[in-house]
Write a structure and sequence with these properties.
The protein is an alpha/beta fold. It is built from seven helices and eight strands, in the order E-H-E-H-E-H-E-H-H-E-H-E-H-E-E.
Length: 234
């Protein structure tokens, strides 16, 4: 992995994304936080820089083509490349929602962020990774998106994460042999704003799974679904 590494983490002003930005900065990365709310992004990056970490923030709405294109333009003009892309941004853990009566407008919004957001970001940054023959793409997924044991408790969220897993497989196959590793990672049920206070895992535990995938060596796996560095069922 090259020196002076650059990582982009979407939805990273709080929770797992913020902890991933912190941990990667401690590993020598420049961590770039993408945040829909620029004030929250700036606050998070300021607090992390106070820890002596190389972290910056830019406004980013992954549901907007224009926003993603502007974000990518600014990042590539300033840094010239991105070594790691962590697609972390996600909304609407719709626990207890009925798939029969769900608000389809909200479902479309969830897909735009949880699924198409990752796709937009990959289109923006994977070509430069391929040109340099190096990159790591980590799609932050969920066991809720596993078809092997999927239930009906979070129908929209589960569907978006299942789609994200399919995207992981397809992208990994397309860039195979180019030096880019693409994987889905489930951080587990984590005590975040989305996961709630009763979740059994800490933010630090959840972030560790994601960072593991960013730091994979060239011989590491691609096109897989992992939690804590171990494969889990699709």
């Amino acid at each position: 992995m090259p020196d002076n590494r650059i990582a982009v983490i979407t939805g990273a002003y709080r929770g797992i994304g913020r902890e991933v930005a912190r941990r990667l900065a401690k590993q020598g990365f420049t961590s770039i936080i993408g945040a829909r709310d620029p004030k929250k992004g700036d606050q998070a990056s300021t607090e992390l820089r106070q820890e002596g970490l190389n972290v910056s923030a830019l406004q980013l709405d992954v549901s907007s083509d224009t926003s993603v294109q502007q974000f990518a333009k600014e990042v590539l003009q300033k840094y010239g490349r991105v070594d790691a892309l962590v697609n972390n941004a996600a909304i609407w853990y719709d626990y207890g929602n009925s798939i029969i009566s769900t608000d389809l407008a909200k479902a479309h919004e969830a897909f735009e962020i949880n699924f198409f957001g990752a796709w937009r970001m990959a289109q923006a940054f994977v070509p430069t990774m391929r040109d340099r023959r190096f990159g790591r793409v980590v799609n932050v997924s969920s066991g809720a998106g596993s078809l092997a044991d999927m239930g009906g408790n979070t129908p929209v969220y589960s569907a978006t994460k299942a789609a994200l897993n399919a995207f992981t497989r397809a992208l990994a196959a397309q860039v195979e042999g180019s030096g880019i590793l693409v994987n889905s990672v489930c951080p587990g049920w984590v005590r975040t704003e989305m996961g709630g206070p009763n979740a059994p895992r800490s933010v630090e535990q959840g972030a560790a799974s994601v960072v593991w995938a960013v730091l994979l060596p060239a011989s590491g796996p691609t096109g897989g679904f992992f939690r804590d560095g171990e494969p889990i069922a699709w």
